[in-house]
Amino acid sequence: MTSPNKDFIYHIGTVGTPWGEAEKQQWLSEQQIKRSYKDEVVTALQQSLPDTAELLTYGTLDYSAFDLPTYELFAVRSKNWQEGKPVVLVTGGVHGYETSGVQGALKFIKEHFNDYSDKVNLLVLPCISPWGYETINRWNPKAVDPNRSFGAESQSDEATQAMAFVRQHSGEILVHIDLHETTDSDNSEFRPAKAARDGTVNHNWNIPDGFYLVGDSNKPEAEFQRAIIEAVQKVTHIAEADEQGCLIGEKLVQFGVVNYPKRALGLCGGMTEAKFVTTTEVYPDSPKASPEQCNAAQVAVICAGVDYALA
Ligand SMILES: [Zn+2]
């Protein structure tokens, strides 16, 4: 374990003391809009919607109290939702900064949605955290991580609205794939910021070079994960374990896979009763992976995961 180093001390707050409202306000004042959710997500969806899909809004994120924009939340769903068919849920952009999670979901919708529409009911929430997408952020404006907020007493409107919308749908959710990335900025920005916010000390770990999956400790489904890793290997490289046999501080359970107890942690991947669950972790900062490869890796996971579950 690396000892805490000056570089890892965040510039807001006092080491060892959790942030109050003033520190959260300072943090928020430093965030800037860097790209457009409307152009890169909403318009892209509207312009490339497959004929078996319908685009709908499932809520609004109102951040006017923070002098920030209000965001409409969009989902893409099978137009012909049929009782008795299994449901496949895909979620992207729970962490808005993880670009290929959003763009990979859009690519899947554009290129593969129609392929699966006669076999399953599809439900895709491509960008759960639009402000995070625009500001390239892990948290929402309240300095809350939506991906620790999928549970009771959630402090994230992003999470509560996604959960409420998914629950409205009939049928058994067979597969849930949640699209993420692990980035160099996790160590340079987001983990130090979290430690500062919580009044704890940050111990950085190595960011793995390559793709990996996070399964659910309560339903690991090793063969499902293996089938996905094999599909992704055709697109990009898989992360190797570090000297301790770990990825991001967690013991590897099989090649390219670590497991977390998703529901207990309030992770998006724990919000359903789906039998087959996985979270992708694409590494976009690798010199060996282009943005196109990262998006393609996300798509490969969805297709391989659904193919395995239906086989
Ligand atoms: Zn993430």
Automatic annotation (TrEMBL):
This is M14 family metallocarboxypeptidase. Gene3D superfamilies: Zn peptidases (3.40.630.10). CDD domains: M14_REP34-like. It comes from Rheinheimera tangshanensis. GO terms for molecular function: metallocarboxypeptidase activity; zinc ion binding. The keyword Protease applies. The keyword Ribosomal protein does not apply. Belongs to the peptidase M14 family. Pfam families: Peptidase_M14.
